[in-house]
């Protein structure tokens, strides 16, 4: 239940950075990436499920895909909602999900999703357990893209921004670029110590 400030009872006004922006304003549940020309909509933040899971939906343009990556602390389940959604995982290879089909990628497994069709597709992702850092990283990625700083793979142009996103969201590159993980972890640590991470979160999450 919210107080007169609009915040849940267990959150003080000074701690609004803890509140996902879409809880305070439902319009902020949907974010857009002009680089990839796709959108994401957060159906359930982890804070709304007591940390059990997080659910979102997203779109992907024809020919689009994100870079191969892995998550160390949570699984990710993909479900096609519209069109044929491609998902690659190290254990299954490439699979095509038709509407209603799902596939789960376990923690630590390299994966990516793609659209090799001629029309935009839509899909749902569910991460278990929830990971607020992932939610924040998503807002930062899309925010940087809107500011002209987003990379084609959906992360960021700048190495430090990329490191902060990877570290905060527990999303690490796979494949040949996986060799960069040790460097990204060091830079991610520096991003936390130097205040870079806080600045990004303040701008694109708190100030969404």
From TrEMBL:
Q: Which InterPro entries match?
A: Cupin_2, QDO-like, RmlC-like_jellyroll, RmlC_Cupin_sf
Q: CDD domains, per this entry?
A: cupin_RmlC-like
Where do the Cupin type-2 domain residues begin and end? 59-123
Q: Where are the transmembrane segments?
A: none
What ranges does the record give for the region Disordered, renumbered to this chain? 1-20
- Identify the Pfam families for this entry: Cupin_2
The residue range of the signal peptide is none
Q: Which PANTHER family match?
A: PUTATIVE (AFU_ORTHOLOGUE AFUA_8G07350)-RELATED (PTHR36440:SF1)
Q: What is this protein called?
A: Cupin type-2 domain-containing protein
Which source organism?
Massarina eburnea CBS 473.64
């Amino acid at each position: 239940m919210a107080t007169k400030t609009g915040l849940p009872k267990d959150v003080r006004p000074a701690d609004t950075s803890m509140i996902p922006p879409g809880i305070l304003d439902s319009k902020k549940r949907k974010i857009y990436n002009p680089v990839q020309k796709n959108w994401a909509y957060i159906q359930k933040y982890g804070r709304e499920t007591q940390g059990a899971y997080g659910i979102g939906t997203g779109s992907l343009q024809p020919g689009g895909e994100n870079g191969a990556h892995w998550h160390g602390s949570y699984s990710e389940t993909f479900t096609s909602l519209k069109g044929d959604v491609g998902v690659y995982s190290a254990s299954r290879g490439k699979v095509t999900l038709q509407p209603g089909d799902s596939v789960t990628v376990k923690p630590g497994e390299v994966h990516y999703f793609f659209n090799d069709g001629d029309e935009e597709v839509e899909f749902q992702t569910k991460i278990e357990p929830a990971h607020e850092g992932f939610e924040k990283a998503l807002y930062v990625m899309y925010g940087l893209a809107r500011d002209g700083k987003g990379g084609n793979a959906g992360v960021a142009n700048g190495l430090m921004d990329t490191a902060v996103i990877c570290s905060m969201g527990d999303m690490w590159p796979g494949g040949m670029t996986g060799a960069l993980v040790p460097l990204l972890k060091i830079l991610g640590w520096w991003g936390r110590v130097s205040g870079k991470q806080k600045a990004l979160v303040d701008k694109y999450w708190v100030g969404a």
